[in-house]
Write a sequence for this structure.
């Protein structure tokens, strides 16, 4: 029998299937294979909130994934794009993305690209817009600070959903009601109230290695800090994460002082129309913290 030191094996034959049919543990194994922190529960959550596809080999192993989250009226966020390391650089990522683009039609698309994916998306026409700073670490009790004058904090309840949706829509420019409704049910939420109006809100939930603060929506750094501080205080001593596009300024400094330095960056990219329209005027709310990179 021939026993050489190298042998060429047949390449994989992949078929596309609906992610809803994939085994949760297989998805979890796939994301772990590329070093992502998602738990099976985190996969379960994104599967409830979006649509997706997986690529399976001949013996039904899940070797790639891609998801998209449709927000009203015509915006889609793409996420959870993964190719198993043994399959990378062979065109599977591009093949999956072409399937996703065919299924999302003419909708405007946003995504947060890791370094390894940026060129792939660029080759599909996606344009880089902003950097997202993934800030995480062991939280430390945040520096003391007073609330902005004329404001108070309160805990969110399910009854606040409509007000959160309105604030989020003004900041995100697309309606992600179903995401917010689901996250509110599993998060601790804080609102900053000015007069009788909600000026800022934040949610915090279990995710990955610990807890994640997001979304955070506010019109300025002081308001954003006010709704973020209680979550940092709650989780002092344990792993905490917040993804933000704030590179510098009071909010970025607050995160660094809270034990959440920049751990990694990704790039927000868009297709068909600009996504992150610059806001002028301090009254307009913006996204200070992402729900997750996949959900935007
Ligand atoms: C990003 C990721 C999905 C890309 O998947 P992939 O299957 O390697 O993607 P592709 O093979 O289609 O393309 C990757 C590169 O390989 C190149 N390539 C494709 N076919 C090739 C071939 N036959 N020979 C050599 N190179 C090839 C592509 O040109 C591309 O290079 P470029 O982007 O520098 O032009 C994968 O690397 C991954 O899962 N990374 C970890 C998780 C992650 O970061 N996901 C992205 C979230 S936004």
């Amino acid at each position: 029998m021939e026993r050489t030191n190298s042998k060429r094996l047949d390449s994989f034959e992949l078929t596309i299937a609906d992610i809803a049919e994939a085994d949760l543990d297989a998805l979890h194994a796939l994301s772990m294979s590329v070093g992502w922190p998602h738990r099976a529960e985190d996969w379960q959550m994104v599967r409830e909130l979006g649509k997706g596809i997986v690529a399976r080999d001949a013996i039904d192993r899940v070797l790639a994934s891609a998801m998209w989250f449709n927000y009203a009226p015509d915006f889609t966020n793409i996420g959870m794009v993964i190719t198993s390391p043994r399959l990378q650089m062979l065109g599977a990522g591009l093949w999956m993305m072409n399937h996703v683009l065919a299924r999302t039609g003419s909708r405007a698309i946003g995504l947060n690209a890791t370094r390894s994916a940026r060129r792939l998306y660029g080759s599909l026409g996606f344009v880089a817009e902003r950097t997202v700073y993934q800030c995480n670490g062991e939280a430390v009790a945040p520096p003391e600070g007073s609330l902005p004058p004329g404001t108070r904090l309160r805990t969110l309840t399910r009854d606040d959903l409509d007000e959160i949706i309105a604030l989020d829509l003004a900041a995100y420019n697309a309606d992600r009601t179903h995401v917010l409704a689901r996250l509110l049910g599993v998060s601790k939420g804080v609102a900053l109230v000015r007069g009788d109006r909600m000026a800022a809100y934040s949610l915090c939930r279990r995710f990955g290695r610990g807890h994640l603060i997001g979304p955070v929506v506010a019109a300025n750094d002081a308001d954003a800090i006010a709704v973020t501080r209680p979550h940092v205080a709650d989780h002092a001593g344990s792993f905490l994460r917040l993804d933000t596009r704030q590179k510098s300024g009071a909010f970025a400094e607050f995160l660094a002082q809270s034990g959440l330095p920049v751990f990694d960056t990704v790039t927000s990219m868009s297709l068909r129309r600009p996504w992150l329209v610059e806001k002028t005027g301090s009254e307009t709310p913006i996204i200070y913290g992402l729900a997750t990179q996949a959900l935007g």
Q: What stands out?
A: The mean pLDDT is 96. Residues 140 and 214 are 18 Å apart (CA to CA). The radius of gyration is 20 Å.
